[in-house]
Amino acid sequence: MNRPNNWLRGAIACCALVLVACGSGTRSADGPKSGTLRMAFVYATTSQNPFQEMALGAAAGAADAGDIDLTETAPPGINGPQEVSQFQAAVRTARDGIAMETLTPDLFVRPLQQAAAAGVPLATVDTVPPAGTKVGLYVGNDNTELGRSLATEIIKQIPVGTTGEVVLGNDIPGLDLLSQRLEGMKAVLQEQRPTLTVLGPFDTGSEPTDNYNKWNNTVKAHPNAVAYLGAGASDAVSLALIQKNTGRRLLVGSCDPDSQALAAVKDGYAAALASPEHWLKGYIAIRLLAEHARTGKPLTEGWWNPGGLIINAANIDEIIARQQNDQSRRQWFADAAARQLAAPADYLRPLSEAK
Questions:
Q1: Is pLDDT at 10 greater than 50 in this prediction?
Q2: Contacts of 95 (CB under 8 A, 6+ apart)
Q3: Of 60, 155, 225, 246, which sits 20 to 30 A from 136 (CA to CA)?
Q4: 354/139 Cα distance (integer angstroms)
Q5: Does residue 28 carry a pLDDT above 50?
Q6: 3-state DSSP assignment of residue 123
Q7: Nearest CA among 225, 231, 289 for reference residue 90
Q8: Region 291-319 average pLDDT
Q9: Please, where are the H alpha helices in the chain?
């Protein structure tokens, strides 16, 4: 009579040993974890600079936190359904935390709900978590302020009383964060240069070829505009190429430190870039998730705004040097990252205020 019970106890013990051997570490449901953490960064596309920067920052955050098996995954082009599938795969393996960035947040309502229900710690990066998902941590910019800072820099080259058109371009119409940047630009132009006529924003496309073609058509339709301002990563690149192809000089401002956009500032084809400092966002998100897993303390909640940076002729050489490789980025951002992680209250606001 005792043999079946002994066999059952032995089988349970073997299964427990297998589970421990296969696990990456040990942690009670709410306690700290030892051993290798299994985490992931899931993002919109590998094809564009903003998302590449976030992924580099996430990798550096994992390296600095130590003993993290970080999976980074994204579609080769913007593809919301494919990214959802990649996120769902990460939920099955990256049980210690997932940072997620997307350009299609509406597709992630249910996947994020399911991940939270499964007990996976979550943070969204760059895009505010969609309503109803119970994601409590968002690491992203004040995009309205980012747009205002770009317009404030550009109008230094537009005398008070100037008349004419300023053309605005939106890489992804309907994406809130880009709309917020453009709202910030428009507000400054209307407040400080009310004699200008602000046009747009026009759809300028996200992928590089589409962006160039749409900006080319827009410039042809408005050839005498005082300035051309974009909200995304490809805009300065496209507008610089248009200038090279036509021999004209335009007043251009855009966002993101794409290497070609930096070259445009260096060569005088773009007056300024407003960098959302994407690298720092990926870094901070992974470090906060890792701290939660290691210590067992509640995951930081709220909107963590790491700030932005205006790139112009005064600091272009420094930023080009910063962007040379992974190590140069890590060295440049080291002080800012340490300062922010040491004083969370200085960078946190209620999630409801994110914009």
A1: no
A2: 38, 119, 120
A3: 60
A4: 10
A5: no
A6: strand
A7: 289
A8: 97
A9: 2-22, 49-65, 80-93, 109-117, 143-154, 176-192, 208-221, 235-246, 259-266, 278-295, 316-322, 326-342
Between strands 302-304 and 348-349, the pairing is: antiparallel
- Rounded Cα distance between 30 and 124, Å, is 21
For residue 166, pLDDT over 80 is answered with yes
Q: What is the pTM of this model?
A: 0.89
**Structure tokens, 226:** 């005082």
Report the pLDDT averaged over residues 51-70: 98
Q: What residue has token string 């930023």?
A: 319
Q: How far apart are alpha carbons 52 and 291 in whole angstroms?
A: 23
The fold of the 143-275 domain, in CATH, is Rossmann fold (3.40.50)
Structural domain boundaries in the chain: 30-141+278-307+326-353, 143-275
| Cβ-based neighbour number of residue 352 at 10 Å | 9
- For the residues of 2-23, what is the DSSP string, one character each? HHHHHHHHHHHHHHHHHHHHHS
Cβ-count burial of 310 within 10 angstroms (0-12 exposed, 13-18 middle, 19+ buried)? Answer: middle
Q: Can you give the length of the chain in residues?
A: 355
In the prediction, which pLDDT does 206 show?
A: 87
Token representation of residue 106: 């509406």
The kind and range of the H/E element at 136 are: none
- What average pLDDT score do residues 240-250 get? 97
Does 6 score more than 70 pLDDT?
Answer: no
Other Cβ atoms less than 10 A from the Cβ of 145: the count is: 17
Cα distances (Å, whole numbers) of residue 264 to 156, 221, 241: 18, 23, 9
115 CB contacts (<8 Å, ≥6 apart)? 87, 91, 98, 122
Which of the four pLDDT bands, split at 50, 70 and 90, describes residue 30?
A: low
Task: Tell me if domain 30-141+278-307+326-353 and domain 143-275 are identical in fold.
Answer: yes
Phi/psi region, residue 302 (left: phi>0; alpha: psi -120 to 50; beta: rest), is left
151 three-state secondary structure: helix
Instruction: Report the alpha-carbon distance of residue 105 to residue 179 in Å, rounded.
Output: 15
CATH of domain 30-141+278-307+326-353: 3.40.50.2300
